[in-house]
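REVIEWER CHECKLIST
Item 1: Sequence provided? yes
Item 2: Single chain? yes
Item 3: Sequence as submitted:
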Amino acid sequence: MSAIQKLCIQGVRSFGPEDRDRQIIQFSPLTLILGPNGSGKTTIIECLKYVTTGDMPPGAKTGGMFVHDPKIAHETEVKAQVKLQLKDVAGRVMVVTRSFVAQQKLKQVSMKTLDGVILRHNQNGEKVMLTSKCGDLDREMIESLGVSKSVLNYVIFCHQEDSNWPLTEGKVLKERFDEIFAATRYIKALEAIRKLRLERNGELKIFNSEIKYLKQNKDKADEIMQKMDTIKTKLVVSKDAVGKMEAQLTPVQERLDEIAQKSNDIFQLKTQVDKMAGERKQLEGHCISLRNKISNEFSGETADLEQELREFDSKLQTCKLSLSKLEVQECKLDADWKEEEEKIRGLKLDNHIIKTNIKLHENTIARREKLMRDAASQYELSGFTDDVFTDVERFTLLMQKHISAAEKSMNALKVECEEKEAELQYQMDAVRDKKTQLQQEEKMKRENINKNKNEIRNIGAELKRVGASAHRLEQLEKELKQMESELQACEASSNVEQTRTEVQRLQAEKAELETTCSNLDSEMGHLHSQSKVRTELDMMGKEKVDKEETVRKIRDKHEDTVVHLLGQFPADKAGLALRDYISQQDEAIRGFHKGFNELQSEMASCTANRNMLKEQLEKEEKNRKNFEEKVFQTCGSQDFDDSIGALNTSIGALQDEKGALTGARHLYSKFVKELRRKSMCPLCHRDFPDSNDVEELVQDLSIKLRLVPTQLEMKEKSIGEQQEKYKQLLQLKPQKEQMAALSQKEIPNLNQKIKEKSEKIGKLRGESDEAEEMLNQTQMDKALGESIQSDLLFMDRCLDDIRQLDRKIATLSTKIADKGSGRSMQTVISEKDDVQMRLKTIGLSLDAKRDSMQKQLDTVQRLRSSVHDVNTEKLQITQDLQKSRSLDEKRSELQTTNERLEQDADEAGRRITPLESKWLELSEEKKQTIRRKEKTLKESSQQLQTMNSELKSINVETDIINTCVGNGNERKLAASDEKMAAAESQLQQIERGKRVAQESMNDMRRELSSQQVRQRELQDCLELRKHEAEVKRMTKKITALEAQLGGFDPSSLERERKKLIEKQDRLVKEKHSLDERQRGFEDLIRNYAEDLQSDQYRAADVQHRDMLIDSCTTEMVVKDLEKYYKALDNAVNHYHKQKMDEINKTVRELWMKTYKGTDIEYIEIKSNEDGDNAGIEKSRRTYNYRVVMIRSGVALDMRGRCSAGQKVLASLIIRLALAETFCLNCGILALDEPTTNLDRENIESLANALIEYVTRRYGVVHFLVSTKCKAAELLSVANKRRSSCRIVECRSKQHNFQLLIITHDEDFLEIVGQAGYVDDYYRVKKNAEGLSTVTKCNICEIHK
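Item 4: Structure as written out by the authors:
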């Protein structure tokens, strides 16, 4: 639980604004504060409320009254600060600081809040600061204390002015209880759910209306789909016929293709012969060209020529590699040369810089010597007249001494001038003060003289007026006598009473005539109303005729249609009858739709099954075709079994040939060895007479040996291919058996099933067309009824209007008959005119009598006023004559005083003149002294500045010289010259290496060029030999092709081709007619598809489904929102009831233990609900609160019926109950003046109840109690409190228990302190400056 620890106040109300006025209060388990009324005790509660909630106390307006008044502090601005150290609900210490400032404006005090700060430590012990610029301090404080702001304002820190809020008017009470219960946001949530449900209901209605339209589009799209399926079925039949026609065309086309292939073969053979002859001729020409280009033809074998070319390639690669190495070496030498060149350029630049520095060093030395020589000559420094200066330090020291001496001289002169200036200023001030004193004295005396003169002048004027009034007094006495006699005569001659009686008689007569006129007006109104009724009756009759004509037209227009739909035209309520008929048609349409949809579903299911069977058939046909393609790719046109046997035979033959080649290789090798060993044939063992024959035989055998590996490789490759092919055929053998079963059994079964499904689909399509026709007829009847429904409903309304008009006409006719009048309108108007004329005459007479009476009354009143004015003036003149003597004496006294003041003023003026002359002399002398001082100081300062500047320049030049000497420029120059000579030598060596590398590269390039020329000649020789071998091969192939052309008969093939073409043309014409019909079906299908792709039908099914889903989900959302509303409403109601029960239970217990009277048994808070609880559609639930007292079992409103003491006690008990119910994390409770208006007995019981309440509370508890009860009233309960305080003592050992009591009664504080566990208390009082101070005192010294 949260707890407060320390409070610091500065600049708030009577607490001072200075740092020394800051007051600190440390809170312990029991904290006592004592102070008289007005000392600032309530300010402590206000500061606690402000620092925790940020709210100003009541009556502080904009906050200016909450801050210490700037006028009392004699400042235009006063700063205030409230700082609170506390523990939050997590037990972490935090410090809250709120600062504000008050500024005194022209007419009012304005307050401005400064930055607020919350300082706390995080888990790592680091300080974390939150300012009001970065966050909401009020929200942070609420979260830290663990209670809402409303509980802080109305329960914990409730101000004294608002302490009786539980018994205020109902509106305020409801607002505060709603804030405490935090019910507003839940009520807003309920309202949001209710509005959202209404919105979703509206959307649901829109969805339902949209579904009807989308359902029509969906049905139409389904109808188009069905028609398209029918056409597709016909298209399939047409395609089957075309397929049969194509089956007849296929063998014809195949035979034509065979004939064309044979013709093509003949043509290809001829073409190949011609082509090969041309290529052979071209190769022969190419051979001649190559032979002409070759200058040195290679004489060896072709193998030797190829070996020579391969060796040439290696030689060329070796040459290119050597050339690349030389090029790399040249690039490296170029890089080294550039590097050395750059190094030499850098050394030259460094050499130039060093020489420049040496020259600058010499110039600097010369410049320093010139400066020193000039300074020594100017300031007469000895020992510095030679041409060369060596002792620079001694020169600098002498210059500094010279500068110091000049500064001392200048300072001494400045001090002397300032002392003289101060002395002259002192003399001037004394003369000015004396002169000012004399001037003030003279001015004051002159003002007194003028004031006295004005008063003398006023007295003279008053005396003149009084003298003139003496003559006026006699005149006034004569006028008074004359006016009194006129008044008596006027009163005697007036007849006011008689005139008043006449006026009353005329008024009565006028009232009687006005009544008669009113009666005549009523009679005229009645006659006028009868004329209005007749007019209205005529209009109703005309309206009735119009409506009857409308009914007749509508009946004539739609009678045939209604008879067609209903069988007869209803005599009454035709619109309602038609509405019932439309409802019946809706039911019938739904039934037809249902049956039609069932047929469509069954047909769609059959179609899907048939399509599935077709897909399965196509799949099986495709598998069979794929297998046949695989077999054809492997076997060609040969039979599968024959292919397997042929492959087996071929593999055996190839393996035999491979074995023969292997044996031949061993045999040929052996023959070659024997021929080389001895010149004889290895087979016949004959000797060769010539060694060349042996060599030729060896070469032939060697060539055959070289060809053996290639032939072996080819045979092995052929064997592998044949074995792979054989393996593939073995793998296909199970599939062949499966395909045979497929062709003989499964495919015929699938065709039979497809045929059965097609027949069933045709039957269902017929039934569907009949159902569709009935549905269309019913829909047309419904649409026809809907088209005339509005007219028939309008006709029903017209008939109802006619019946109503009949009733009104009968009623008006009865009125006219019952209220007939005997007189005409003209007679009544004439009588009214006579009465109005008499009224006008009486009005004029009455006005004349009233004017006469008013004139007489005005004359008497005027004479009485004149008599009174004369008496008043006479009395004033008498009083003025009595004051004339005192005015003469006062005038004489003022004249004597003025003479004396004139003398004193003249004397002061004479004494001022010599003082002004002396002050001017002293002022001029001071100015001259200041000018002399400024001139001398300026010259000295300029001289000092010049000397310092010269010394600084010399020191700068010396620093530059020392820097140059330390750099060693001569040594650097010598080293740079050596490096540059070495670099130039290295550069020459690199250039020599570059020349040698370039010569080697040129020789290598020439050698490479000659080798490439020889390589091209050898390549030409090799190409020539290949072309000659190709010419021989082509000659043999041409001979074979010419022999093959002799076995064909072109004329018989041409005759067979013409017969087949005639048969093909006849079949093609029949096929074209079938194709035309098929295209018609395709056009219909395309049109249907375009209709289905239109915006209306393209996504009709999806849109209908989506809208249906939206409708269902929205309906579910509406139901869920209603459930949420009821659940939240019940939860809020349950929470409110539970809390109210807890509060009333606590209130009842505390009241019965505290209140000792017998007139009220107990009190409780009644909460009545407004709004209907029936459901979400009703208005939201609200609660109205009132405090009632139970008397003899009857609940009475306590507000307005209870005494002041009962009101205070009830408010206190309600706040205690609210604290116990809502302050689970923070039990801070502020009770200001709790015993106000309570008698002794109730004070005692309240004290006991408070102690007992403490024993029940958990967490941190703060009582801020300010009371005015007398100590004598509490002494009798001291023993009871001591026993109760033992509980408090026990509870005080807990870390979360605190009690704060604020009172002005020392005896009451002493009783609380007798518990024995509090040693100190705080005394609040005001010091001599009127500022509040807080002092910590010992509880034992409370009366000292």
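Item 5: Key structural point noted by reviewer: Residues 245 and 1071 are 6 Å apart (CA to CA).
Item 6: Recommendation: ____
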